[in-house]
Design a protein that fits this description.
This protein is mainly alpha-helical. The chain is about 60% helix and about 10% strand.
Length: about 160
């Protein structure tokens, strides 16, 4: 059992995820500071010096801290947008890397044929049998309409 746990804990995906969680926690602190110390005070200037974190609706003995909730929403939106930008950039770099690899592969095949001065015939391009899920980035069957890993509906996204 200990051996199985060691194999599980040392798999690349688990280690990558752990590093991501640690970096995400640090990033969350930075964004929280940005929201609390810069963005919300700037908004307060335009709204009549209202401190959003102090906005409370009191009914009887209960208090609803809706100002703190607004601050948390702004915090979430900044983090979500940052992650979106990072993933979009990563996907573009990944696509360019794949294109370059395909070009290199095609050029190496053609150069082998050209060594004997043979006529280059059009290579048959095999249609892909798999695709990448845009939500969890797992490799799935090209005909899939629902990802078996994250159960996202694939026909709703535009690829």
């Amino acid at each position: 059992m200990l051996k199985e746990f060691k194999e599980f804990a040392t798999k690349g995906n688990i280690m990558d995820m752990a590093i991501g969680v640690i970096i995400g926690g640090a990033f969350q602190k930075i964004v929280t500071s940005l929201v609390n110390d810069i963005i919300m005070p700037a908004i307060a200037i335009f709204t009549g010096k209202v401190d959003f974190s102090e906005l409370v609706l009191t009914i009887g003995n209960s208090s609803i801290k809706y100002g703190s909730f607004i601050t948390t929403i702004v915090d979430f939106l900044i983090i979500a947008f940052s992650i979106f930008i990072a993933i979009r950039t990563f996907n573009k770099l990944n696509d360019k890397t794949k294109e370059n690899l395909e070009k290199i592969t095609k050029n190496s095949k053609r150069s082998k044929k050209n060594k004997k001065d043979e006529v280059i015939e059009e290579e048959k391009v095999e249609s892909p049998t798999t695709k990448i899920c845009p939500y969890c980035f797992s490799e799935i069957n090209i005909k899939a309409t629902k990802c078996p890993h994250c159960i996202s509906n694939l026909h709703e996204c535009s690829e």
